[in-house]
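Sample intake sheet
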Amino acid sequence: MAKEKPRKALQELLQRAGNQLCADCAAPDPDWASHTLGVFICLNCSGIHRNIPQVSKVKSVRLDAWDDDQVEFMASNGNNAAKARYESKMPPFYYKPTFSDCQLLREQWIRAKYERKEFIFTEKQEPYSAGYREGLLWKRGRDNGQFLSRKFVLSEREGALKYFNKNDAKEPKAIMKIEHLNATFRPSKIGNPNGLQITYLKDNSTRNIFVHHEDGKEIVDWFNAIRAARFHYLQVAFPGASDVDLVPKLSRNYLKEGYMEKTGPKQTEGFKKRWFTMDDRRLMYFKDPLDAFARGEVFIGSKENSYKVLKGLPPSTQGNHWQHGITIVTPDRKFLFACETESDQLEWIAAFQKVISRPMLPQEYAVEAHFKHKP
């Protein structure tokens, strides 16, 4: 009976505003807690807290024994109070991960918040908020696929991220304009838990760069420095826009990635297996997931502009090995794809529908026009 009382009190605390979602990743129904920080967290985040025992001690709300003092501490703190304290000076551009993000982002967010107290003391934000950053990252070679150490320099003043093939090189190997820069963590694709994919536009085509660093904090600081630079660029470009409008534009995760088969414009040649990436309205396909350039790109507009996605392939189609077809109808032609499984097919259709059901923005018409006039 003595055990039941604290457990009942904890169950009631879980119903309080703020405590119904994990304090760190917003996963629903957290059933773990840090009894030294006073926050309710999910099972995944509790594993990260265990790795910083000097800061956080965790218990299961349902399975572990709690004493009255610990329950009292939880009652006088809770997720909203912790957020007000540990996130009080969090810059708007800093990426706040959710439960669907990779382990690295969630771990560095938790360490930044409670261990390093980066959002209590603004001077600790220097590595990503200063507007300038340089350092070495392991970069995958475009042709040989080897990861080699390269110097990277991010300069907000110059509006660019550059990398150099040699540390003392005068001229950069590439200049990536902040205006067209995106960064997203793709650990499983890159084959490294700290793997970051950076993309930029070169002659209106997407160029991929794959990098990693052995230090998780270092690569997440690079990611947030890129977001900070884009934030300040967009503040100048759209002077009337609020932070709420700008933050979603700082970096994009891909709507979907994976293998499909495709056939060419005449639809008479055989289907070939390709790796596809849906990046906003650009559907790109690659021979290999880690290719620097796409073999081709398809622009996906909106239904108002006569774009449609259909389940299945035209009856006369031949040459596909995979049975679960998708047809994308554009104003100019049809694109035919085939998926290996029905679940893949349904996921791709949902991703395409999401884009097609969204009206096009004025700047997207310019992108569409460029695709139409591609040689």
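Comment: The longest helix spans residues 216-237. The two ends are 77 Å apart (CA to CA).
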